[in-house]
Each structure stands twice: as C-alpha cells, then as structure tokens.
Write a structure and sequence with these properties.
Helices cover 47% and strands 16% of the residues. It binds nicotinamide-adenine-dinucleotide. The site of nicotinamide-adenine-dinucleotide has 30 residues, from helix 13, helix 16 and helix 18.
C-alpha cells in the first residue's frame, strides 16, 4: 500500500446528461486505468480500502453514481436512473479519465449490475479491457435465468427460484412507493452504519457514509427504473465483449450463487472466484479483492488469456497464501501439492530442509504461482516466531494455515519416559499451538478472514493401550481446534481438525517405539510400514479432505473408513470402542 487514500485523491467533476458526477483519481495516469463502480446504498467511499491497495500499480478511478455521494441527482428522479443513462455516465467518465485506452471495469452490487450493461452493449465495445463483477448480476442474465426455470420447472429449479426469491425481499420492498424513502430517512438510516460495522467489519476503515439517507432514497430509483421491466424482457444478445472475472461471496444474504450457473453461455472468457464472506466484500476483504483485481488486470494488459488452474478448488484458492507444516513428506506434501494445483501460493515448512525444498519446487511445477521452502522445527518457539515475522514481511498474511507436522510414538504408558512424552507433546501439540498463536494471530489481526487446519488423528477419539502419548497429543489438538473455532467464529476464521486413520506415509518408519531396544524398534517400524502399505490409503486423499474441509468450513473431519467408523462408535457405542482399546494392538 502506498498510503494513498481517498482523502488525498485528485478530484474532478464530469458533466453529463443534466447531472454532475464527482470523480476521484489515485495513482499514475500512465498506468492501466481501473474504474471502480459502487453499489446501493453506498458511495465511492465503499472502495476506499481496495483503491488504496491498487493505487501503487494502477490509475484508479472512482465516481459517485448519479444521485449518490457528491454527484448530483437527475430531475425528475423517476426515469433518471435507467441503465441507458448510467451507461452515458460511465462513457463520460471514461472519456474524461482515459480517452485513448480501454479501462478495466470493477463493479460491486448495483455497480456490478450496471457494469454488466456496460460490458454487454455495443456502444461501449473497445472501451472496456476487462470486467470484474461482484455481487451484482446482469439483469438480462437474471431474467433468462428466471424464465428458464419457469418454463421448465424441475424440483431443483423451483428450489433455486424460491431460494433466490426469498433473498430478494428487499427488491420488492424497494419497488413500493415512498416507504423505502421514509425508512431510510428514519430508523433504517440511523442503524445502517452500525449494522455494517457489526457484520461487514474491517479494521481501520472509517467508512464515511456522507449522505446515506438521501443516497439510499435516490438509489431506490435504480430498482424502480430498471428491475421489473428488464427482468420481464431481458435482452437476447447480452453477451460480454470483454473478459469477465466473477467474484462470488458465498455468504451473500442477497444473492444466491446458483444465479451464475449458466453464465458461461453469456461470457466467453470467464474466470470464477469464490470467497467465504458476506455481501460487502470491498469493505471486508480488500486484500483479496485487490490481489485478484490486480492479477486479472495485469494478465489482460499483457494479452495473456487467464486460464484458471486445473485444481478442483481453483476458484477458491487461486492466489491465496497457504502455509503447510510437515510439508516435506506424506500428508503435508500431498496437501501442499493439492493447494498448488488450485493456484495457491505455497509455503512449505519442514525441519527436513531437502524435503521442504523438493515440495516447493514441485508445487511450482504443479501450478503454484509462487512457492517457498522454510526449514523450521515447529516445536521451537523462537524459530517459529522468527518464521512468522519473516512470512508476514516477505509473503504476507497467511490465508490458510495447515498445522500438520507430527511424529509417531508407540509404547505402553509405563514404557513411555518423561522425555518421550516431552518430545511428542512438543511437536504434536506445541507445534500446533505455536502455529495457531503466531499465524492465526496475524490472521485475526488483519481481520479479513482465513482458515486454520490442524492435523489430529483418529487416535484423538479412539483410545488404545499402545499409543497413550500420541493419542493424548492428538486429543489435545482436537480440543484446541474446537475451542479456537468457537473463539474465531465471529471473525470469519474457520478452524478444522482432520482425523485420519491409517495412511501410507513415512511416519511408520520414523515413529519411535518406547520400551524396546534399537533392533526391536527397527523390526516394529518395518512391520508397521508393511501393514500401512497393505492398507495403502494414499495421503492425496487426506489432502483432498483438507481442501474440502476449508471450503465447507467443517469442524471435525475423520478421514478413512476406519476413522469414520471409530468416530461414530465414540459417539454412539463408546463401550465397544473401549473394549477394542484393551485388545492387543497390531503394532
Ligand atoms: N500416516 C498416518 O497414518 C497418520 C494418521 C493420522 C494422523 N497423522 C498425522 O498426520 C501428520 C503428518 O504425518 P505423515 O503421516 O504425513 O508423516 P510423515 O512422517 O510422512 O510426514 C511428517 C513430516 O513432518 C515433519 N516434521 C516432523 N517433526 C517436525 C518438526 N518438529 N518440525 C517440522 N517438521 C517436522 C517431518 O520431517 C515430515 O516431513 C502428523 O501430524 C501425523 O501425526 C498421520
């Protein structure tokens, strides 16, 4: 960030169609121009955080939509907010700020609804280099979406219609005369800033709403002038003439993600992104938006077609920063690869320097735009602190943290020495505590969401007389994850505990066996490795479960059939599980 804020933006006024628009500019005019269009009931200030993050690389332009902020309103209001007039405004702004080069358009909410019009009508062709849309569909596409479902109503389609219908209550409300105006000038206008602060928070964003009741009352005409008529008669040729990046917040109370199911038919060059957030992402997720917008603009400027990474969850993890501990082998390595395939930037952490380096190298080949290796012992508090400082300074705040490094230890309770206990707890529990405290702390401080995954084990809920220390460490990780999940829930940070059963990795050949001599330990390691090999559950499947757990924000995830079985037994027939615990272990 450059410290550029809307307060020190250059301002000009652009006259068009009987109104005067307030236009603000940040950054070098020689750079590619990014035009940010705000929604309802907002003013250009909703973009303040995003604009500040883009201004060091781009010429950033924002304007108050007619009737909003410091732009004047048309007279009369009725008929003054048609999509046609809004397109005139956009072209007037573009003529003023970037007469010779097409601009990169970004719209949120109603800003996106109108931008869809700009990106699909003939008279703007050649003026738009790319369009990033968030939380505002094209009314034409929406109209066709409704019509398809009404014409051929399968149960699923009717469900989708009802789902979106329920989310659209405010659209009907805004079509009523006078009531919205009264509400905004009265109680709604008063509580609105507090509602936003409560649910769409971002630290340090003052979010001025200079003239909210008037803006909101004017903006009601955006709906009245356009929605009903356009939904009834959607244009048949509403094809986008620029590449489109669609960013969908999955927790949007106003728009169902299903709305965009058939978007490819209207948009030949579509890149999809999703993120777990509510409606006002320009306020609540500025880092992620600036990164995605920056990447999309830069790619289109250089004439590159933006091809989405091949991974299953590329829409979600593309460009995100993911740190995995124990990434030099087994589950950690497979997890790093899965994130890499989804286009994430990967930090592979392991105490085994070679292992971590190989994982980072392979991650780049698999699709990670950037990947780094860091050699650290996760049980070493100071080393972890140093790593956290370095990561924050060099790579940024981690979006997904996977505390996975762990060691095995087998042996009865009385064979397990205090040193054995210390070692296993230091790595398996304290490593997770350090990771959560340091990287989770940075996430919480940033206030823009994130996710923490801790690798526990089925041993966390399945007692055994062979693994008292290991199982205790994993039970602690499971409970730590549950507690932290409760603590971070209000901040948009999810916490998942992964509980695999027997997975075919190196852990069997490095696990310690307490109470036996070296030769016997070797023999048992070999035997366990053979058994795990026969079981042959691949770490890639655990990695897949980890990515899915993040996407779905799952709390506790048993992986492998035996882990799922034991999980069910621990809840419904714990006595049977205890009986199994007393039996001779296979190890
Ligand atoms: N393999 C299984 O059957 C299984 C089952 C349940 C849970 N788990 C858990 O999954 C996690 C990953 O295990 P895996 O099976 O992939 O084992 P693995 O031995 O193949 O990989 C573990 C990695 O962690 C690293 N590591 C160990 N201690 C470390 C430390 N102090 N600091 C930094 N890195 C360290 C190792 O160098 C290794 O690269 C562990 O927490 C393990 O307890 C494994």
């Amino acid at each position: 960030m450059t410290g550029m804020t809307l307060e020190n933006a250059r301002e000009r006024r652009v006259r068009t169609g009987g109104v005067e628009l307030c236009v603000a500019e940040l950054g070098e005019p020689g750079q590619p121009t990014v035009v940010l269009v705000h929604g309802y009931p907002d003013s250009k200030e909703v973009w303040a955080q995003v604009a500040a993050r883009l201004a060091d690389r781009f010429h950033v332009v924002l304007y108050d939509v007619r009737g909003h902020g410091r732009s004047t309103a048309p007279r009369p209001l009725r008929g003054g907010f048609t999509l046609e007039k809004l397109t005139d405004d956009f072209l007037a702004v573009v003529d003023a700020v970037s007469p010779d080069r097409p601009v990169h358009l970004v719209g949120h909410d109603w800003g996106s609804v109108q931008s869809w019009e700009f990106a699909t009508v003939a008279r703007t062709e050649g003026r738009i280099a790319s369009f990033t849309s968030m939380s505002g569909p094209s009314l034409d596409h929406f109209g066709h979406w409704i019509n398809t479902r009404l014409r051929r109503p399968t149960p699923r389609r009717v469900g989708q219609l009802l789902g979106q219908g329920a989310k659209s209550w405010y659209v009907y409300a805004l079509h009523t005369p006078v009531l919205p105006e009264l509400a905004w000038r009265g109680p709604l206008g008063k509580v609105w800033p507090r509602v936003l602060e409560r649910f769409e928070r971002v630290p340090g964003d003052g979010y001025p709403t200079p003239s909210l009741p008037t803006d909101a009352a004017h903006g009601a005409w955006l709906y009245r002038d356009n929605v009903r008529s356009r939904l009834r008669r959607p244009r048949a040729d509403a094809y986008a003439h620029a590449p489109v990046q669609l960013i969908t917040p999955l927790g949007d109370a106003f728009l169902s993600e299903r709305l965009y199911d058939e978007l490819e038919q209207w948009v030949p060059r579509l890149t999809r992104r999703t993120l777990p957030a509510r409606h006002w992402i320009p306020r609540s997720r500025p880092d992620q938006l600036a990164a995605w917008i920056g990447e999309f603009v830069t790619a289109n400027e250089s004439g590159r077609t933006v091809t989405a990474p091949s991974g299953k969850y590329a829409d979600r993890f593309g460009g995100q920063l993911v740190l995995v501990t124990g990434a030099g082998s087994g589950i950690g390595r497979a997890t790093a690869y899965a994130f890499a395939e989804s286009g994430a930037r990967v930090i592979a952490v392991d105490r085994d320097a070679d292992g971590a380096a190989r994982t980072a190298e392979m991650s780049r080949l698999l699709g990670a735009p950037e990947a780094w290796a860091e050699t650290v012992d996760v049980s070493d508090e100071q080393a972890m602190e140093k790593l956290a400082d370095k990561v924050a300074a060099a790579y940024g705040v981690v979006d997904v943290l996977v505390n996975n490094a762990g060691i095995g230890l087998s042996g009865s309770f009385f064979d397990t020495t205090p040193e054995d206990w210390k070692k296993v707890l230091d790595v398996n529990l304290w490593g997770v505590i350090h990771g959560c405290r340091l990287f989770g702390g940075q996430m919480a401080e940033r206030g823009q969401g994130g996710h923490i995954v801790n690798t526990a084990s089925a041993a966390a809920y399945q007692p055994s007389k062979a693994l008292p220390a290991y199982s205790t460490s994993k039970a602690a990780v499971l409970m730590l994850s549950e507690c932290l999940r409760a603590e971070l829930a209000g901040q948009g940070i999810g916490v998942s505990a992964i509980c695999p059963g027997f997975v075919n990795t190196n852990i069997t050949s490095t696990a310690r066996f307490a109470g036996v001599d070296g030769a016997e330990e070797k023999r048992r390691q070999k035997r366990t490795a053979r058994l795990y090999g026969l079981r042959n559950y691949p770490p890639e499947k655990v990695a897949d479960a980890i990515l899915r757990a993040v996407v779905r924000n799952e709390a506790v995830v048993p992986v492998t059939p035996e882990a799922r079985g034991a999980h069910l037994m621990s809840r419904f027939t714990p006595r049977a599980l205890r009986a199994i615990a007393r039996m001779e272990p296979p190890l």
